[in-house]
Structure formats: structure tokens, C-alpha cells
Amino acid sequence: MYPLPATFLSLRELVYTNLLGISRLVQMKTASSLQPKHRQPMTPTAEKFLALLEIISRLRAPDGCPWDKKQTPQTFKQYLVEETHELLEAINDDNPSHICEELGDLLFQVLFLNNLYQEKNLFTLSDVIDSISAKMIRRHPHVFGGETVDSEQELRRQWQAIKSRENERQEKPRHLLASIPKSLPALRRAQRVADRVAREGFDWPDISGALSKVSEEFQELQEALARGSREQIKEEFGDLLFALAVVARKADIDGEDVLHEATGKFTTRFLVLEKIMAERGKQMVDLAPEALLAVWQQAKNEPR
Fold it and tell me: How far is it, in rounded angstroms, from Cα 209 to Cα 246?
């Protein structure tokens, strides 16, 4: 564990004091050394946090919920992913009450997952809080230390330099792309990879070069389709998608978000198409391609 700056200790003491009542659950190993002479009363938020931890403990108790009791990190991780996507959807909808609900669901997932490891005495919630607090302070010397940064580019260089020093201390081999999760959605991962290597200078001088690469990859995909080789088609299609991710980065747009928006737009128009077909008492298979395209154009022009 990296030492925390002295200016942060009073804040950490206050946090630990507020959460001191839950030491039975989170096994706060350092609580006794941080305990001030005059304890602060537990805040309402801390009391609610304690109650949530107690709910999780009760669910996992011998006489708790059968479903919760049988969960392991491997079986539970899928629900963490699902809740994350539900939160993202709520944020996209800009619905504060829905966001609040989904944040609560995600918080529960994180604490529940932590509890699974804590039950095996692998680490505690205190360890998790210590780790992230120290990391954030260590990686922001321009906030918690005396360093200054004059640009976002300089800030990114500082961040990467700090991460490299951390890897050296932990004897981890430095790999430029190692910290990008392989489990990210494919388009987002592609854009993150493109962004990471661009910071090292592996980039097109301008967007025209990236667009030319898209044209090249599209031509190669057409040639693969003409040859009919499935493996080659898959490879060229993947290359085309990656080239488009590079264009998205050069255009300063989030490819994942705009693809979601495009899919949503198509879905909305298709619902309108279904409504038109139902009003006419027709099935799509009943129409010739030209007639179906005409109805599709009508659906695109219908007010939403």
C-alpha cells in the first residue's frame, strides 16, 4: 500500500469513524489506529450504508435467500454487467429517478461481489476503499501534491507515467494496451486501442488518411465476398469495422454511442413500418422489394 499524504489523513479518519459501527461486517483492520479521541456521530448516509451491508449479510446467512447463498463471483459477474448497461441506458434517457434507482442496483452489485471475497478472507471492503483512495491521490499529484499541469495532453502523459511507475513497483511488464479490458464492447475497445496507440504517435496525420483506409478495407471486403471465402470475409469485415473506429476517433465522436443511436433510430422507424403494414392489413413478405422500400421511406418521414 502506498502511503497517503498527511493532508488526507483527517478525511480518512472521519470516513472510518462514520463507518466504525460496521467493523463487524467489513473487518476494518486499521480502524483502531485511526480512531480519534472524540468519535464523530455516524451520519445518516453512513447508517444507511451500514443497513445495506447488513441486508447483504442477511441474504448470505445460512437461513438467508437460497439464490443469494449459492452465488459465486463467476455466477454473479453477469448481473454486474447487466446492471451497468441498465444504468447506461438510464443515463442516456436522462431520467434522474431511473438513474438513482440503477445507481442503487449497481452499488448493491459491487458490495455483494465484495462480500463474496470477504467471506473467503481474501480482502475486505476496507481494503478496497484504501486501495482506490490511495490510487486516486497517487495519480492526481496536481490536486493532492505540488505538481502542476498546463494541458490535457500533459495530464495524460503524467497519468501514463504514474501508471508505468506503479507497474514497475509491482513488477508488471509494461504493455501499452494491457490495461484496456478485452471484455469491453468490441467497438468501444477498438476505439480505445486506436486512441491509446495514437498517443504514442501511431496515427494518421489527418482524417483523410483514415477515410482512405476505410475505402481500402471496403474494397478488400468486396473482393473477399466475390471469392466467397468465409474466413477471409470475416477478417476483412473486422478490418473495415476497426478502420471505421479509427475514423470515429479522428472525428472526436464515440462510435459505440452513435451506433446505439443509429440502432435506436432504425428500431423506431421499423415500429412505424409495422404500424403502417398493420393498418393496411399486409405482411412484409406480401410486398415486392420496391413496394416495401416505398413504405420504408414513408415510415422514415412519419412524425415520431
Answer: 10
Give me the number of domains the chain comprises.
3
Return d(Cα 147, Cα 44) in angstroms, integer.
Answer: 36
**Nearest Cα residue to 206 out of 240, 238, 252:** 252
Judge whether 118 lies within some domain: yes
Co-location of 240 and 272 in the same domain? no
Domain that holds residue 46: 6-138
pLDDT in tens, 216-230: 999 999 999 999 999
Q: Are residues 297 and 222 in the same domain?
A: no
Cα dist. 207→170, 187, 204, 213, 253 in Å?
39, 18, 7, 10, 13
Of the candidates 134, 181, 184, 176, the residue with the CA atom closest to the CA atom of residue 156 = 176
Q: What distance in Å separates the CA atoms of residue 109 and residue 20, rounded to the nearest whole number?
A: 22
In this prediction the pTM is: 0.61
Residues 121, 124, 126: CA angle, nearest 5 degrees:
155
Q: Is residue 171 part of a domain?
A: no
Closest-CA residue to 191 (of 138, 151, 246, 150): 246
Same domain, 23 and 104: yes
